[in-house]
Amino acid sequence: MATEAFEPKTIVVTGGAGFIGSNFCHWVAEHEPGVRMVVLDKLTYAGNPGNLAGIPEGRCELVVGDVCDAELVGWLFEHADACVHFAAESHNDNSIADPSPFLETNVRGTYVLLEAARKHGVRFHHVSTDEVYGDLALDDPARFTEETPYRPSSPYSSTKAASDLLVRAWHRTYGVAATISNCSNNYGPRQHVEKFIPRQITNVLRGERPKLYGDGLNMRDWIHVDDHSSAVWEVLTRGRLGETYLIGADGERSNVDVLRAVLECMGQDPGAFDRVRDRPGHDRRYAIDPAKIRRELGWRPERTDFLAGLAETVEWYRANEPWWAAAKDAAEARYAAQGQ
Ligand code: NAD
Ligand code: DAU
């Protein structure tokens, strides 16, 4: 089913100084010795050049710039054979407070990259989210598949949905060699402290009580970031052009269960948290059916022991307070202003 393997030599990785993009760069550096990476990252509040530390000299170069800068993108694409597009404004709560950077980066940025891919014949892999499919009821036996209709709920997910549609149109109309993947909730080291799991871990490390939105019964489908990276590599190199692949690891858990697991893992009373104002429009449940990527590409997640991955993640935040301290102050100031 899969097409002949594509063997990129130089990849532009947009958003490679963020959580998942930097993990992907580490993963490629470790597993694909012949590949050179050029990270294009604007270093917003979510980007940190330190996330690329430890990648061997010569394997990965950081270019600080904006995916909306057509001239810069064109110049980088002249010297690349593929682009893996992670760069985005990625946090739902921020999109509710101010949607405008989401439209700019997620929609216009993807358009600029697609135009450059078209002009320079660069293979394009678009990293997207399961949130484009909206949400499922808690008691719905269904999971998302590649055929599920788009029904995004938030400003964030609607801009990601728009970007996916641009990729599909540029493939069909202009023949851009593109693939898309839609993944579920990632966790692991170097995730920004605004996100659920790192926010609660760092609250406990600071002696603050964790904060749960609403009734906490919302379900998310957790995958370790290493598994997302290996799946993106499979789709980039062996996926069929024009196709979408859903990435998930059968990791459905309610928020309250995840929070209790964090507290127990950190030696705390599992009930020691506060309930705070719910997120407006809060999606109830996400769940991925990963049958297609398993069947067509033979991909399997390896980091499927959630409690072991969580314990490692807790240890990473415990050992790296200088990495998160300033970002934590800024994120908590934003949450306080929102009553969360
Ligand atoms: P992140 O917020 O941690 O990182 C985003 C990176 O993009 C940062 O380094 C930031 O500086 C950079 N960036 C933002 N705007 C830019 C611009 N205009 N030009 C260049 N760089 C810019 O995000 P993440 O959680 O690592 O998510 C990466 C991608 O994966 C996103 O596209 C997101 O939609 C998708 N995704 C995330 C998850 C998840 O659970 N976090 C799940 C599925 C899909
Ligand atoms: O599903 C993939 C998506 O997962 C990605 O596309 C997004 O980029 C990523 O941010 C993530 O979106 P969520 O909104 O699911 O993740 P977040 O970490 O913000 O929240 C996870 C759940 O936890 C969600 O139901 C809201 C809840 N929550 C979040 C925070 C920050 C809380 O209960 N308390 C909190 O303090």
Question: Explain this structure to me?
Answer:
The protein has 340 residues and is an alpha/beta fold. The protein has a domain at 10-192 and 223-252 and 285-304: Rossmann fold. 42% of the residues lie in helices and 16% in strands. Helix 2 (70-78) runs parallel beside helix 4 (100-120) and helix 4 packs parallel to helix 5 (155-174). The model has no long low-confidence stretch (mean pLDDT 97). Bound molecules: nicotinamide-adenine-dinucleotide and 2'deoxy-thymidine-5'-diphospho-alpha-D-glucose. Nicotinamide-adenine-dinucleotide is lined by residues 14-15, 17-21, 40-44, 46-47, 66-68, 86-90, 105, 109, 127, 129, 160, 183, 185-186, 192.
Task: Give the SSE layout.
Elements: E1 10-14, H1 19-31, E2 36-41, E3 60-64, H2 70-78, E4 82-85, H3 92-97, H4 100-120, E5 123-129, H5 155-174, E6 178-183, E7 186-187, H6 196-205, E8 211-213, E9 219-221, E10 223-224, H7 225-238, E11 244-247, E12 252-254, H8 255-265, E13 274-276, H9 291-297, H10 306-319, H11 321-337
The structure holds nicotinamide-adenine-dinucleotide and 2'deoxy-thymidine-5'-diphospho-alpha-D-glucose.
Question: Can you summarize this structure?
Answer:
With 340 residues, this protein is α/β, with parallel strands linked by helices.
Strand order of the largest sheet: 3-2-1-4-5-6-11
The CATH architecture name of the domain at 10-192 and 223-252 and 285-304 reads: 3-Layer(aba) Sandwich
What ligand species are in this complex? nicotinamide-adenine-dinucleotide, 2'deoxy-thymidine-5'-diphospho-alpha-D-glucose
Query: What is the fold named in CATH at topology level of the domain at 10-192 and 223-252 and 285-304?
Result: Rossmann fold
End-to-end Cα distance: 47 Å
Radius of gyration: 19 Å
Main sheet properties: 7 strands, parallel
Low-confidence stretches: none
**General shape:** globular
Beta strand count: 13
Q: Name the CATH superfamily classification of the domain at 10-192 and 223-252 and 285-304.
A: NAD(P)-binding Rossmann-like Domain
